[in-house]
Amino acid sequence: MNSRRLPGALVRVGDILSTMPRRVSSGALLCSLVLLIQSAWGQTDWPMYAHDAGATRYSPLTQINTGNVSKLTQIWTYNTKPTPDAMPRDARTTPLVINGVMYFVTGFQSLVAVEPETGKKLWSFEHQRNARPAKGIAYWPGNKNGPPTLFFGTDDGFLIALNAKTGKPVPGFANEGELELRKGMKDNHPNATYGLNGTAIVYKNLVITGSHVQDNGTLGGKGDVRAWDASTGKLVWTFHTVPQPGELGHETWLDEGWKDRSGVNVWSTFTLDMQTGTLLMTLGSPSDDRYGGDRPGANLFGNSLVALDAATGKLKWYFQTVHHDLWDTDLPPQPTLVDVVHDGKKIPALVQAGKTGLIFILDRRDGKPIYGKEERPVPKGDVPGEWYSPTQPFPLKPPPLARMTWKPDEIAGFTPEHRKYCEELFKDAHNDGPFAPVRMTNTVVFPGPDGGFNWGGGSFDPKLGYFFINSHDRGEVTRMIAQTPGTSKQKGADPATQPPYVRRNAGNITNPATGWPCQSPPWGELFAVNVNTGDVAWRIPFGRVESLEALGFKDTGAYNIGGSVTTAGGLLFIGATSDQYFHAYESKSGTLLWETKLPANGYANPITYLGKDGKQYVAIVANETLLAFRLP
Q1: Most exposed among 435, 515, 567, 583, judged by the fewest C-beta atoms under 10 Å?
Q2: 265, 221, 220, 219: which is closest to 241 by C-alpha?
Q3: Contact status, residue 433 vs residue 404, Cβ threshold 8 Å
Q4: SS3 at position 467
Q5: 3-6 and 524-530: which strand pairing?
Q6: How many CB atoms lie within 10 A of CB 171?
Q7: How far apart are CA 390 and CA 378, in angstroms?
């Protein structure tokens, strides 16, 4: 038999042989042949958090396509509750499908393996650590020193390694399969927050971890990124995300603001350029992320995309998207690797989005913006002792894709009662435009603490050259107030390290009586950006508010969080919206082709894969329920 048909790919032994050098040993030939066939079969799985190391979330499967997606049917569900009366728990995890097995973590201190065609449980592992669920799992195929391994993190700072075949802890990894990540990271602040909710990533025989540390308070756990031997758990390298004396970027921390500084952490996950061995990581805001008077300067590598040599942890380049952050406008989305055709040249590139609602398309060889950027003057605030950056970076293309400003005539007035609530909230508030500093008086801030764009990130269709991403507009009406030192009760931080000024909201910008935001819609949108031009190919309102639809108001969009998957079948799958719907759009046009209501909000990134039965499936987590769909 000379060929095996795979959806989206055709592998012929003769074609492979014809590409081999003439002088090659039979052993090398066999090895190359096996690797190529494994690579082709891997396209039918979902082997990494974002499908591939480049975080494209693109599947070459075509069985479900624009012509038949309207027939998509729910096939099975898996409820993760350990008992029927267990309290519901929020979960936003993305499963993996590898070699005929689906793996996923739950909100109930477990990792589960099931048959991806039926949802039948194969095994589960229960751990004793804090159970805030990780957003995903990392898979290592193993070597002579260790078995195929699944890695996931815990809220109290452990990396757990399980044998992918048995679900048992790997005894040779750290302490019987558990690596404590907290050691050395919060020695001077033992009560500070330190955990791992994001997804680790595997490069060759390394497993690389970020961290979850506090947003509030100034000092605490370190945000350093570290790489560990995947078979033993031994530390291989450390990258100081807050540069220490003598390191590049240290000069951007004035008045010794770097000392014991928390934040500046990878709290989502990483991207890898496997061709060049480059680790791409998005670093969060320095803490406190709302006050920076004790950390004057631009504060590298806060709010930066940083490229490292994945094998050594050595810095290659960086790009800072916000200088001296005072808004918690960090970079949760993974960078997505793309190829851009610009001025007749093919450029290895990446797309980086962030909470600001801005998107930068960068040359991934050096981090330079392909479509240019400019440093624009931004307003200065009035908080005593604060340091304000005089400028902030803006891409020349694409335009801002989330609300960054507000004007008094933009109050939503669906009913007299709603308008009255909003006018009262906004009556003494003002906004100074993009990067509006929060003043000592009521200030309208857009985007709010959730973004813009959040950790769901984007997906990319290489055939169209379109990058897809969803945004939402939920701001704040807030002000800075003085506080007595040591009195704050903000979660996760030592009261002795609280800043002298903190934010206090004037009220909820979403009317609690109706759930409707106070600014004019749309409140959520879905975009396609042509990476070859930097232009928006299409944009549509995303999500619905059913109570407003009943009054005749449509296309408002809605709050959303979570990301998308795109396929060679011409489809874009995404949950994300607060109306509990799971959607399929035509990726070329943005036309809605199918949707179904989930048992809870699908605030998770979906996946698609080919089962052993030859059928293509689509799956998504909706809190404690995992659901799978396929054609009848």
Answers
A1: 515
A2: 265
A3: yes
A4: strand
A5: unpaired
A6: 12
A7: 6
State whether residue 98 is helix, strand or coil.
strand
Q: How many residues does the chain have?
A: 632
E strand intervals along 575-624 = 581-586, 592-597, 607-610, 616-622
Closest by alpha carbon to 68, among 590, 565, 594, 574? 594
CA trace torsion 55, 56, 60, 61 (10° rounding): 80
How far apart are alpha carbons 384 and 386 in whole angstroms?
Answer: 6
Would you call 620 helix, strand, or coil by DSSP? strand
Tell me how far apart the alpha carbons of residues 604 and 563 are, in angstroms, rounded to a whole number: 7
Task: Write the single-letter amino acid at 229.
Answer: D
284 contacts 265 by C-beta, under 8 angstroms: yes
Look up tokens 């450029």; give the residue. Answer: 347
User: How many Å apart are CA 225 and CA 60, to the nearest integer?
Assistant: 32
Q: If pLDDT is split at 50, 70 and 90, which confidence band does 236 have?
A: very high
Strand order in the sheet with 616-622: 73-79, 625-630, 616-622, 607-610
> d(Cα 344, Cα 341) in Å, to the nearest integer?
6
pLDDT of 253 over the 50 cut: yes
Pull the structure tokens for residue 188: 């001077």
Q: Fill in the DSSP letter of residue 243.
A: P
pLDDT of 562 higher than 80:
yes
* φ/ψ bin of 39: left (φ > 0), alpha (ψ from -120 to 50), beta (otherwise): alpha
Residue 630's Cβ-count burial label (10 Å; 0-12, 13-18, 19+) is buried
Q: pLDDT tens digits, residue range 259-305?
A: 999 999 999 999 999 999 999 999 999 999 999 999 999 999 999 99
Q: Residues 306, 399: contact at Cβ < 8 Å?
A: no
From 511, 362, 486, 500, select the one nearest 425 (Cα to Cα): 511
Lookup result for tokens 């631009």: 298
Contacts of 467 (CB under 8 A, 6+ apart): 336, 338, 351, 359, 458, 459, 460, 528, 529, 531
Is the distance from CB of 78 to CB of 114 less than 8 angstroms?
A: yes
Closest by CA to 256, choosing from 211, 294, 313, 302, is 294
pLDDT tens-digit readout, 439-495: 999 999 999 989 899 999 999 999 999 999 999 999 999 999 998 765 555 555 566
Pairing of strands 235-239, 271-273: unpaired
Helix ranges restricted to H, 513-612: 546-549
Q: Are strands 206-209 and 225-229 parallel, antiparallel or unpaired?
A: antiparallel
178-180, strands of its sheet edge to edge? 138-140, 149-153, 158-163, 178-180
> Does the predicted TM-score (pTM) go above 0.85?
yes
Give the Cα separation of 458 and 333 in Å (integer). 7
SS (H, E, C) 248-305: CCHHHCHHHCCCCECECCCCCCCEEECCCCEEEEECCCECCCCCCCCCCCCCCCCCEE
Per-residue CA distances from 511 to 153, 418, 449, 507, 516 (Å): 36, 7, 17, 9, 5
